[in-house]
What does this fold into?
Amino acid sequence: MLHLGHLAGALTNWTALQEKYECFYCIVDWHAITSDYAESGETGKNSLDILLDWLSVGLSPEKSCLFVQSHVPQHAELALALGMITPLGWLNRNPTYKDQIANLQNKDLSTFGFLGYPVLQAADILLYKADKVPVGEDQSAHLELSREIARRFNHFFGAGLLPEPQTILTPTPKVPGTDGRKMSKSYGNSLYISEDPKSIWDKLRTMVTDPARERRTDPGDPEKCPVWSIHKVFNGDAPQREEIVKGCKTAGIGCIDCKKMLNAHIESVMVPIHERRAKYENSRALLTDILAEGAKRASVVAKRTMDEIYSAVGLLRLDG
It folds into this structure.
């Protein structure tokens, strides 16, 4: 289930990019299994849920190629080929790998698949010879590793075989969850794209605010309030934002008033999303047809790339 952090940090950008570029958007189910292999039974259902969220926010199967990673087997093939030349030291130094090992204590992540996920990530990109990849600044190191893998592969098997993808740095506003921490499903603090308005309001109503405002008459500091942080993302009404800042600092408005204003803006954003969702959510056949067509389109490019890889590496092909 995708949440408002995903909407603000990635999906809004993706819908804009599809108007300008040929875009491939891939639901990475093999990646999901690298950390959730012990509980992978819901992976197929989750893939459909993600597609439904994508379609709801405006990603279009007519404008973009929407597909599931495992439906295009060349992702796994290229990952195997890239893994042959990727030094273990590069993977062991990956800061995200170290961070996840330290923080996800409830999972055994000491597996080949989890250590090597950046190789599969590189394959996802390089299989389509992507010119550009939209990432936030905190993800740019991942893309640099993909470039290093491409350079090393080209060194062994042919200059220019795999182009080095460039970064499209996209704005990624930080959207806090209801407890003030980063919005995350694992923290149980998320506002979901698929949630109905009443459920979102119930969560907003009880959301933490500036701890200094213990009583209605206490002045506060908006910059210490996670509700204000969400206002900055979803509230484009500049005069009202000025009113909120002034009212908070002088105790002219209460926290519940501030939350009601935020809820109104979130509702206005979600109405067209929920309208689009209604067109798809009761038709599994329509969703699977979209994914089948996306996999067909992606496979045309993927097979062409792998033909070049097989030839460059020197593998024997029975078809000549």
Q: What stands out?
A: The beta strands are 23-27, 64-68, 132-135, 166-169. The longest helix spans residues 284-313.
